[in-house]
Amino acid sequence: MKIAIIQFPGSNCEQESSQAIKMAGMEPVEFMWNHDPNSLSEFDGYFIVGGFSYEDRSRAGIIAAMDPLMPYIAAEALKGKPVLGICNGAQILVETGLVPGLRGNAVGMAIATNKRVKHSTVLGTGFYNAWVNIAVSCDPHSSAFTRHMRHGTPIRVPVAHAEGRFIIADELVTQMKRYNQLTFRYTDQNGKWAIEFPDNPNGSTQGIAAVSNPAGNVMAMMPHPERTDVGQPIFTSMRDFIADERRIQIRTLDYRVPKVAVQKYEPSGTGIVTELIITDNEAVTVEQTLRAKKIDVSVSRYSHWAATGENISAETLSKTGELFNSNKERVVDNLPAEKNTLYLMVRDKEDFVGQSKKQTLKTRFSMSGLRDLLYSRVWKISAQSGNLHEAIEAIMETNILFNPHAQDCYMFAPTAASPAKPQPMQQEKQQNMPSYVNTITEQRNNCLTRTDAPLGTRLEGKVRDRYVQDDKIILITTDRQSAFDRVLASIPFKGQVLNLTSAWWFEKTKHIIPNHVIEIPDPNVTVGKKVDVFPVEFVVRGYITGTTDTSAWVNYNKGVRDFCGNQLPEGLKKNQKFDFPIITPTTKADEHDRLISPKDIIDEGLMTQQEWDFCSRKALELFSFGQAIARERGLILVDTKYEMGRDKDGNIILVDEIHTPDSSRYWIAASYEGRMANGKEPENIDKEFLRLWFKDNCDPYNDKELPPAPPELVAELSRRYIMLYEMITGETFVFPEDGLRVEDRLTENLATYVIENKTHDTDTKTHIVAGEVELSREMKVVLVLGSEKDADFAKRITELLAQDGIAFDQHVASAHKEAAKGLDLIERYKDKRVIYVTIAGRSNALSGFMAGNSDKPVIACPPFTDKMDMLVNIHSTLQMPSKVPVMTILEPGNVVLAIKRIMSLISS
């Protein structure tokens, strides 16, 4: 009988292992990891030896488990041949999934750091070398290695390991007992099963010292029976098992391994990060192994300590010399946030290293104020080529950084500050929430629907009115509630909620990225820096959900798996959480939002690679921070969008809004798991019920007139917006003073921003109102843009208009998506002396729409980027039906000259 003595780099027990095999009457043959694996079929059995001379798991067990040799051994085990792994050999069998024997050899358990605990006191962790008692704890005839031994009779053998603690879930232990898989357990000298140290030397689950697969021919064992004569029955049993040539019964356990969940690390207390100043052989080995697996990354490793308590400082902790060896390690002040780099923090579920050090600091160093001390490893993963997230997914499949049965993994943001302390809504506030409905109902007519003021060039969005000045932009958030590409209703205080919620988040996230906010002069107003905004929205998704054409779930349900450059796995369910948040950017093509991949963003020149890398990283950091705060408030931040741009100094900053109920989706955290388990949609706080009412009572896409929204639904939606504001910020919503109209408050608060110029009649008192501004009978130019993308082109016209003192307004109204808004503009200006200038490209329906539905002159000035683009735009602009007069002028200067001549004719 030939037994292969399997050796991987670093093993040092081959001599005593070979001797034990020889004493049992078998022939040991040394078999190195780099020998031809095809020759393994010539052997009758296999002995994976232990005693690796360095760190057990990642440099020994898991690296060897990934070796090409192991699938061959697994195939021979299926034939019924015995496989024995001792110490680090046991680690290899666990990490390959040969034990405990789940379907597909899934990794179902772990071997973790020793814990030496007695009477709830941690006596020590790490390496331990001693003699212990073990005994067979299964039916001796069920295993290839116990048939010469008696159940419960102890034998004394040595142990020598740093990671020898079997961790097995209780449910799996129950299944394993059914098939006699708990082969050996630690005992005291009388044969009583041992739970505590020193009889149980490592804190192993239920005192387990060895486990087998269901067939009994593969065993992973931590003690070293090969080092003593009393261990020989294990090897003679192996010999007789081979001699019997009995066919084994192949079984697989039906235990389901929980999916790995990478959490967001929530920093707290005092943190210390250290790194080796000598070569980190473990990181080097991990990196080399990953590259051999075609995962092109570089790897670094750090140690992380987090202490909480009173009078605890990093300096005090460092001076003890307990947390790191200053001869080999140094403290790192800041981990850099680098391109294509991600940090993963790994911490033992039972952090006995941290607990042990905490005891030492409290007793030996009198740190009575120390409440907790946590130890973790931080792995820095940098993609050298390819997609970082694809590389991370591939790494996670290897388990090389951590075993999820023994350890937790966190996304570690190196630049993130500690999150704000929880500020949940007070119970009395929750109880008083229903009374808000009365106030809302009383002020249902105190809404800000639209503005028109001398504050600069006006741009009207779905919810916000923007006024552009030389160096700043004034954003007035109205109470308009839009859906179906039109305004459905005015919701009292919605604008105040959105603006103040965004202002709160801007303040909380400025440590991650600076933002455009200059001041908040009014609850509905943000004055921000004028910014060159990137033509890309950074949509970040933590869950797969949604109902629109650009949503993750709708596309996934259609079979899309490459979603904006993200490779989505099979088998996802609606509303399921992604393993990692993903970015699914959108941009505007003509007048329609479209999904786009990062590669296409770069290829189309919308952003540079450097700009994309920076903005996408900041988007993920913002989202992680937002999710952490939301979780503290009992909410789930499901998905959101961010906009960024460059200020006049070239700095990339955050603009527009952040984490508002309009830009983000929130679910109620407490009910999420239960509703998912029951196949129900998550509980949310949004406007869907109002949308559904309009769908049930009219055709909101096609009806020219919509029925008024029921007052009770308007009040309820307002209440929900206010409730979400209070849940997120922890602050009490402040209603306007009794009798004070929102527009009157705005007029007073924005007085310093009024611009006195010829765009408004200075002889007429101008008032910001929720309606029209009374102006003189002066002729005005009205610019109508197909999308906000056209604003830069429009600026070339408005600057010339301003130089000549010609009054103008500017609006955005897509003929394709916002026809109702275009009709509203035509109605608004029907009794005024105006000239329309339309700016829309490609499928230019806007010019004909304005000319065909009004009696005003229309000048079309289509934008274009090159000659080919110009030909397409001119063609669509020139092709007008009869009785639809549109003048097409390509040069902005000529547009203004034509306007002046028209005005001259009319005035004469």
UniProtKB/TrEMBL annotation:
PROSITE patterns attached to this UniProt entry: GATASE_TYPE_1, SAICAR_SYNTHETASE_1
Domain PurE stretches: 779-908
GO cellular component: cytoplasm
GO molecular function terms listed in the Swiss-Prot or TrEMBL record: ATP binding; hydrolase activity; phosphoribosylaminoimidazolesuccinocarboxamide synthase activity; phosphoribosylformylglycinamidine synthase activity
Pfam family, one: GATase_5
Catalytic activity field: 5-amino-1-(5-phospho-D-ribosyl)imidazole-4-carboxylate + L-aspartate + ATP = (2S)-2-[5-amino-1-(5-phospho-beta-D-ribosyl)imidazole-4-carboxamido]succinate + ADP + phosphate + 2 H(+)
UniProt key word Ligase: yes
Record-level GO BP terms: 'de novo' IMP biosynthetic process
Enzyme class: ligase
Pathway terms, separated by semicolons: Purine metabolism; IMP biosynthesis via de novo pathway; 5-amino-1-(5-phospho-D-ribosyl)imidazole-4-carboxamide from 5-amino-1-(5-phospho-D-ribosyl)imidazole-4-carboxylate: step 1/2
Family matches, as InterPro entries: Class_I_gatase-like, PRibForGlyAmidine_synth_PurQ, PurE_dom, SAICAR_synt/ADE2_N, SAICAR_synthetase_CS
EC number(s) reported in the record: 6.3.2.6
Family: Belongs to the SAICAR synthetase family.
Protein name, as recorded: Phosphoribosylaminoimidazole-succinocarboxamide synthase
This protein's encoding gene: purC
